[in-house]
C-alpha cells in the first residue's frame, strides 16, 4: 500500500486543482446538537461504519452538522474512506485508530469523518481522483485531511501509527503557525477548479481507423505478460472490460496474438489461487504476478463480471474448463452471496480471526489429515503455494497440466469443503447495491447464452424484478435496496448498468416490458444527469459536493458514461430514436481524444469505436419460429451484433419489426443502420452474411 511523505503536502495542493470537495460555502445550519465529543457510528447500518463504532476516535458521518461544526469552530477535518472487506482498512484500524493516544490527538484537534465508499462512491471517487492525479496510484483506506472550509491539504492511503501521528502533528503545526500558507494553497486550489470534470467537447468526427487500432495495440503489447497473462505488474487485478475488448478486437481484426493473450490470461487466472478451487468464485486481486496469492476478499462486482467474461470465452474458445468456472462461480454466488430476501450482498471479508485468508488457507498436516489416502492424488491435480510471510500455510491452485475433473478429485474437494465449513466464516457485508446486482443480471444472462441452462435465465429475470420492486421508489432508482437502507437515489452506474441488463433481457426474451423499462429509465438519466455543458452525464442527479463528477475511464468497473452511450445506441435502434443516436455520436466524438491519449484506460469506449469501424449488424428474426432461431444466434460468439425477435404481428409493434412479419413463415433480416438485406430463413446463411468480408450495406 502507498503512503505519502509530508513533504509532498504542498505539491498535493497544487496538483489537485480539480477539486473543491465540500459544499461548505452554503449557509451554515444550526449545529447546536453536534458536540464532537463521542463516536456516533453505533446506529449506522453500514457494517464498515459499525465496525469503527468501538474505536476511541470520535468518528462522525458525512453530514451537514459535522462539516459545519468544523467550519464554525475552525477545526481541521480527517476524512477516512474504506469498505468492509478491505484488509488494509482493518490493519490501520487495529494499529492506529484503536490506539488511545492517537485518538486523543484526533479528537482534540480534528473533526473525524468516516465514509463507507460503497454507500458514497461519489465522495470516494473525488478523493481517489486526487490521489491518482498526484501519483497515478490509489488504494484504501483513503485518508485525507481537509481545512475547516473543506478543501484538502493532505492525502494518503495506509499509514503506520508512527507515520499517521507524524502527519497529524506536522499538519497541526502548519495550521497553527502558518495558516496563511495553507489558505493560500487552498485559494489556488479553488481558483484552479477547471480540469478533471470539465470535459473538452470534440467537434471532429471520430476517425479511429483500422490502422489507429493497430498502432495503439502495437504500443500496448510490449507491456503484456505473455507467460501469466494481462500486463507486467507486481499485483494483478481482474479487468473483465479489458478482456471483453481484446476478445472482440481479436475476432474482428483477426489478430491471433491478441486472441492468444486473452486465452493465456483466462487460463492463468483459473489455475492460480485467485480462483477459489474448493468453493468457487474469484478473489478481488492477486498480490503477485502469477495470480497465485490473492487478497482474499470476494466482491460481487468481480464475480458478476467474470461470469460474462468466461461465458464469452466459452463460446469463442470452446474450452470445457470455462464451463466449469461458470458453473462453479454461480454455485458460489447462490450459496454464499444470495440474500435470504432476494438480491445479492456486496462482499465477503478477506480477514478472519484477525488473519488475512485464515478461512481459505491450509497447512499440509490439515490436508493430509482431512484427505487421508486421497492426499497424494489431490496434490497431483493441485499445487500448494506458500502464503506470503507464512511458510506453513498454503493456497490451493490448479496444476496446469491437469485439465480434467475426476470423480476422485470431486470427492477430495467435498471433504475439504466440509472441513472448511467448520471454521469460523469471514464477515459478510450485506449491502445490496443496485449497480453490482445489475452486473450480475448480465452475468447470469451471458452464462445462459453460453451454456443454455434456463435456470440462469430465470435467476436473471428474478433479480431484475427484485430490483424493479425494491430499488425503484417514487420514480427514482435507489443505490441500495436493503429494506432498512438509507434511501439515496442511485448514481449513474446504478441506472446505466440496470438499463443495460434490461436491454439484454429484452434481446434474449423478446418481452417488451424490458425494452419499455429501459426506455423509461433512460429518459430519467437524459433529463436529470446532464449538466448541459458537455455531452457526458454527471455521476449524480443532485450532489452535496460542489464539483460535479463525470466518470469517463474504466477501472475494475466499466465507465457508466460508456455504458450509457451503449444504451443510447441500442435504444436508438429499437425505437428508431434519432436523438439518442445523435447523443451517442456526440459522446464517442468527445471521448475520442481521451482514447487516443490513454488507450488502455478507455476500452469500453474502445468497443464502441470498434462498432463504428465494424458497424453493428442488427439481426431481426420475425415469425412463428423466431424465438428458436433467435436462440441459435444468442448461443454463437458474434461480436458487434444485436439480436431481436418477435413471434407475432402486433399493431403497436416497434419500428424495428415494421413490415417484416409474414403469416406462417419465419424470416431473418440482417440489417445495418436500419437498412436490411433480403431476408433468409436459414441461421447459417445469416451468419455467413454477417461474417462476409464484403458485407457492407
Q: How is this structure best described in words?
A:
- There is one protein chain.
- The chain has about 700 residues and is of the alpha+beta class.
- The protein has 4 domains: about 5-190, Glutaredoxin (3-Layer(aba) Sandwich); about 210-350 and about 430-615, Glycosyltransferase (Alpha/alpha barrel); about 360-420, no CATH class; about 615-690, no CATH class.
- The chain has 25 helices and 21 strands.
- The protein has a 5-stranded mixed beta sheet. A 4-stranded mixed beta sheet has the order 19-18-20-21. The chain has a 3-stranded antiparallel beta sheet with strand order 6-7-8, with no helix packed on it.
- The longest helix has 20 residues, at about 580-595.
- The relative contact order is 0.08.
Strand order of the largest sheet: 1-3-2-4-5
Tally of contiguous helical segments: 25
Q: How far is the first residue's CA from the last residue's CA?
A: 53 Å
Please, what is the average pLDDT?
Answer: 88
CATH architecture of the largest domain: Alpha/alpha barrel
- Which fold name fills CATH's third level, the topology of the largest domain? Glycosyltransferase
From the alpha-carbon coordinates, what is the Rg to the nearest angstrom? 26 Å
Range of strand content: 5-15%
Instruction: Assign a percent range to the helix content.
Output: 40-55%
Number of strands: 21
CATH class of the largest domain: Mainly Alpha
| Shape by Cα distribution | globular
- Main sheet characteristics: 5 strands, mixed
Secondary-structure-derived class: alpha+beta
Number of discrete domains:
4
Amino acid at each position: 500500500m502507498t503512503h505519502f511523505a509530508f513533504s509532498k503536502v504542498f505539491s498535493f495542493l497544487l496538483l489537485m486543482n480539480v477539486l473543491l470537495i465540500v459544499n461548505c460555502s452554503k449557509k451554515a445550519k444550526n449545529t447546536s446538537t453536534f458536540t464532537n465529543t463521542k463516536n456516533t457510528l453505533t446506529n449506522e447500518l453500514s457494517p464498515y461504519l459499525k465496525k469503527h463504532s468501538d474505536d476511541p476516535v470520535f468518528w462522525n458521518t458525512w453530514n451537514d452538522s459535522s462539516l459545519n461544526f468544523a467550519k464554525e469552530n475552525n477545526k481541521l477535518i480527517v476524512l477516512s474512506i474504506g469498505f468492509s472487506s478491505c484488509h488494509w482498512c482493518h490493519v490501520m484500524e487495529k494499529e492506529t485508530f484503536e490506539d488511545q493516544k492517537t485518538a486523543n490527538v484526533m479528537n482534540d484537534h480534528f473533526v473525524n469523518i468516516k465514509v463507507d465508499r460503497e454507500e458514497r462512491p461519489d465522495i470516494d471517487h473525488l478523493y481517489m481522483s486526487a490521489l491518482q492525479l498526484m501519483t497515478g496510484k490509489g488504494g484504501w483506506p483513503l485518508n485525507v485531511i481537509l481545512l475547516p472550509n473543506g478543501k484538502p491539504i493532505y492525502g494518503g492511503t495506509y499509514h503506520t501509527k508512527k507515520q499517521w501521528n507524524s502527519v497529524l502533528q506536522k499538519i497541526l503545526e502548519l495550521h497553527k503557525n502558518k495558516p496563511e500558507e495553507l489558505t493560500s494553497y487552498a485559494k489556488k486550489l479553488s481558483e484552479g477548479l477547471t480540469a478533471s470534470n470539465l470535459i473538452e467537447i470534440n467537434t471532429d468526427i471520430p476517425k479511429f481507423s483500422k490502422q489507429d487500432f493497430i498502432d495503439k495495440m502495437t504500443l500496448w503489447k510490449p507491456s503484456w505478460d505473455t507467460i501469466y497473462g494481462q500486463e507486467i505488474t507486481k499485483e494483478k487485478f481482474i479487468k473483465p472490460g479489458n478482456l471483453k475488448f481484446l476478445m472482440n478486437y481479436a475476432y474482428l481484426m483477426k489478430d491471433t496474438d491478441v486472441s492468444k493473450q486473452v486465452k493465456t490470461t483466462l487460463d492463468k487466472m483459473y489455475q492460480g489461487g485467485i480462483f477459489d478451487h474448493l468453493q468457487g468464485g474469484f478473489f478481488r486481486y492477486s498480490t503477485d504476478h502469477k495470480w497465485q496469492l490473492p487478497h482474499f476478499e470476494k466482491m460481487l462486482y468481480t464475480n458478476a463480471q467474470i461470469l460474462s467474461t468466461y461465458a464469452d470465452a466459452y463460446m469463442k474458445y470452446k474450452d470445457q474448463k470455462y464451463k466449469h468456472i461458470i458453473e462453479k462461480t454461480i454455485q458460489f454466488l447462490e450459496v454464499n452471496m444470495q440474500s435470504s430476501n432476494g438480491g445479492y450482498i456486496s462482499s465477503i471479508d478477506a480477514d478472519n480471526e484477525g488473519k488475512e485468508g485464515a478461512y481459505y488457507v491450509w497447512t499440509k498436516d490439515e490436508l493430509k489429515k482431512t484427505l487421508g489416502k486421497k492426499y497424494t492424488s489431490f496434490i497431483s491435480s493441485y499445487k500448494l503455494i506458500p502464503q506470503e510471510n507464512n511458510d506453513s500455510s498454503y493456497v490451493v491452485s490448479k496444476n496446469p497440466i491437469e485439465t480434467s475433473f475426476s470423480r476422485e478429485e470431486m470427492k477430495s474437494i467435498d471433504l475439504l469443503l466440509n472441513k472448511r465449513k467448520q471454521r469460523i466464516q469471514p464477515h459478510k457485508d450485506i449491502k445490496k447495491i443496485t449497480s453490482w446486482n445489475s452486473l450480475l443480471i448480465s452475468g447470469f444472462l451471458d452464462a445462459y447464452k453460453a451454456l443454455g441452462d434456463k435456470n440462469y435465465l430465470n435467476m436473471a429475470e428474478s433479480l431484475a424484478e427484485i430490483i424493479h420492486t425494491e430499488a425503484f421508489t417514487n420514480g427514482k432508482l435507489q443505490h441500495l435496496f436493503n429494506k432498512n437502507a438509507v434511501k439515496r437515489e442511485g448514481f449513474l452506474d446504478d441506472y446505466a448498468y440496470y438499463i443495460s441488463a434490461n436491454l439484454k433481457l429484452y434481446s434474449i426474451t423478446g418481452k417488451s416490458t424490458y425494452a419499455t423499462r429501459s426506455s423509461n429509465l433512460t429518459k430519467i438519466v437524459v433529463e436529470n444527469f446532464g449538466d448541459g455543458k458537455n455531452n457526458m452525464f454527471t455521476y449524480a442527479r443532485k450532489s452535496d459536493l460542489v464539483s460535479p463528477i463525470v466518470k469517463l475511464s474504466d477501472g475494475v468497473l466499466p465507465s457508466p458514461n460508456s455504458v450509457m452511450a451503449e444504451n443510447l445506441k441500442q435504444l436508438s435502434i429499437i425505437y428508431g430514436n434519432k436523438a439518442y443516436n445523435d447523443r451517442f455520436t456526440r459522446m464517442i466524438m468527445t471521448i475520442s481524444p481521451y482514447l487516443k491519449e490513454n488507450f488502455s484506460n478507455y476500452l469500453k469506449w474502445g468497443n464502441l469505436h470498434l462498432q463504428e469501424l465494424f458497424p453493428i449488424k442488427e439481426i431481426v428474426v420475425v415469425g412463428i419460429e423466431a424465438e428458436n432461431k433467435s436462440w441459435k444466434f444468442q448461443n454463437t460468439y458474434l461480436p458487434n451484433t444485436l439480436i431481436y425477435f418477435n413471434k407475432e404481428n402486433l399493431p403497436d409493434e416497434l419500428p424495428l419489426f415494421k413490415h417484416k412479419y409474414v403469416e406462417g413463415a419465419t424470416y431473418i433480416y440482417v440489417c445495418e443502420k436500419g437498412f436490411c438485406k433480403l431476408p433468409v430463413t436459414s441461421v447459417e446463411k445469416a451468419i455467413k452474411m454477417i461474417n462476409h468480408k464484403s458485407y457492407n450495406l
